[in-house]
Amino acid sequence: MKNRTIKVDYLARVEGEGRLFIKIIDNKITETKFNIIEPPRFFESFLRGRRFTEAPDITARICGICPVAYQMSSTHAMEQACGVRVDGALRDLRRLLYCGEWIESHSLHIFMLHAPDFLGYEDAIQMAGDYPDLVKNALKLKKIGNDIMILLGGREIHPINVKVGGFYKVPLKKELDEFIEPLKWALAFSLEAVKLVSTFSFPDFERDFEFVSLRHPEEYPLCEGNIYSNKGINIENSQFLNHFEELHVEHSTSLHARIIKRDDYLVGPLARYANNFDKLPAIAQKAAKEAGLSEVCNNPFKSIIVRAVENVFACSEALRIINSYKRPEKPSVEVSAREETGHGCTEAPRGTLYHRYKIDADGIIKDARIIPPTSQNQKAIEKDLLQYVEKNLHLPDDKLTWNCEQAIRNYDPCISCSCHFLKLKIDRG
Amino acid sequence: MTSIETVVIGMGNEFRSDDAAGLSVARNIRKRQIINVRVVEGVSEGSALIDAWKKANMAIVIDSVVSGAEPGYIYRFDALKEAIPESYFIGYSTHAFSISQTVRLARTLGELPAGLIVFGIEGINFSPGNSSSPEVNAAVSKLTELIVNEINSGIVPSIPPAGSN
């Protein structure tokens, strides 16, 4: 009986903490577990009893990287419950705020967390020694995203300017116009970035994913659209829990999600891209094609290219919104509570984020349900690792371990959102 | 901003007791209204830290540390001349950078200010809330005076020595 053990006690360059255990006996994988071992954070519990208007500020605290996603899903859910729709310039400003979050989050992941995997560096600091201009430009791009969040959200981490019905304060036209030149630079650099990351060397690995994302009839999805999959799902967000379920597994304190009576699915950039290529602006489609991507990408290692393409979209969309901006007379619309259930589903940088709230006639939250993208991707991550290791058992331990870590980072997992800590251990006996 | 600006950057989470030490020192210094001194707080990740000191001649960063020393112990590092112990300063998250990592990155990119002093105050109570320990409160007052004196007398990065308490 031949056994091997490969162990990584702490996986760097992901948000949060987790552990992975792979057991291989006689060149057969007998166990693959993606363990999330952090204690539950109880957000859904302590939302109960709070006013519906508090949900955006409370849920923004779930994540320092993607707080806008939590604010957008919660505000949309509350507005749906209250029978209110936010449109026009306020809707555009929400998309602009989300573009800011995508730019800062994708830039951080592409350049600081994921690129070192492909270029053979332990971290971005080491990489900066050989690629100083790339890292400087990456930080500059990230800062533009952060600055958009500061202007619209009040601050970049846990923004405070979002409310059910809109914003507390909306920017002047001239304040937004100051972003035009920086965003033109950001767009040009993002196009360069697509070219650069497309030259990386990618493991030969593809899977037949079920891609799940929002799909909107007119736009690349951020805040609105049906929940759609390339294998037949096309539903309103209120039907989410009729098609998807969460299961407790013994080795994770974060629930695993799956499609009911089917299996794992994937949310995030690869899914959005595959389901919505036709909605990307021409400049992003062209960049993708020139980078060698077809309209569907089944290689998760190439998610870094898709993220770069989405940055092109985010910069382009931000410019479109700013150029057409007319300051609304009021920063928000009136929202009155009623006894109802509301659902909100928006596209966090790392995938679809579902919220559901039941509120009473006084606007008190009676029940809350939050399903973050990383918990939805847990089974897909495990399956990627299983299939990747199966096909690459011939690799030496150090190379296999490196590629497994890289495979996990393909998902830009925000483990803190689902829970925390990643230890990678491949036990070959 | 003038060409002689000093930026004082207070780090930490004000809702985690002793972790707020850096913020408290920075806020004390802000109240002194010293000419050409800019006080920054709310910096929570590496690139924002680099941005905060980018245009300053001298930067002073204050954060809480966990090194095993006595609570309230004050560390002083001249970041241009010595390494910042990686394990002392708590990272904001695995997604961002700690102070020591940020200094290393800025050094690599040539984005360190002309002078950079990092102060650390040893904490012991990082529980939720704002009940900082008495030793840390005393260190906050002491470090405030130390930094104000340094600013007023023209900061000499090598004096006083590290670990003064």
For the record, what is the CATH homologous superfamily label of chain A?
Answer: Cytochrome-c3 Hydrogenase, chain B
Residue share in helices of chain A? 40-55%
SSE string of chain B = EHEHEEHEH
For the sheet with most strands of chain B, the description reads: 5 strands, mixed
Broad shape of chain A = globular
SS field, number of helical segments of chain A: 15
Oligomer: heterodimer
Question: Which bin fits the share of residues in helices of chain B?
Answer: 25-40%
What's the number of extended β-strand segments of chain A? 15
DSSP summary, beta strand count of chain B: 5
Low-confidence stretches of chain A: 419-424
- Measured on Cα atoms, how large is the radius of gyration of chain A? 21 Å
The average pLDDT score of chain B comes to 85
Helical segment count of chain B: 4
- Secondary-structure-derived class of chain A: alpha+beta
Under CATH, the topology of chain B can be stated as Rossmann fold
**Low confidence ranges of chain B:** 158-165
Topology at a glance:
The complex is a heterodimer of chains A (429) and B (165).
Chain A: E1 3-4, E2 6-8, E3 18-25, E4 28-35, H1 43-47, H2 55-60, H3 67-82, H4 88-119, H5 124-130, H6 132-153, E5 162-163, E6 166-167, H7 173-177, H8 180-198, E7 212-215, E8 226-229, E9 234-235, H9 240-243, E10 244-247, E11 256-259, H10 269-276, H11 282-290, H12 303-323, E12 340-348, E13 351-359, E14 365-371, H13 373-391, H14 397-409, H15 415-418, E15 422-427
Parallel strand pairs in A: 3-15
Antiparallel strand pairs in A: 1-3, 2-15, 3-4, 5-6, 7-8, 8-9, 10-11, 12-13, 13-14
Helix pairs in contact in A: 3-4, 4-5, 4-6, 4-12, 5-6, 6-8, 8-12, 11-12, 13-14
Chain B: E1 6-10, H1 21-32, E2 37-41, H2 46-53, E3 58-65, E4 74-78, H3 99-109, E5 115-122, H4 134-153
Parallel strand pairs in B: 1-2, 1-3, 3-5
Antiparallel strand pairs in B: 4-5
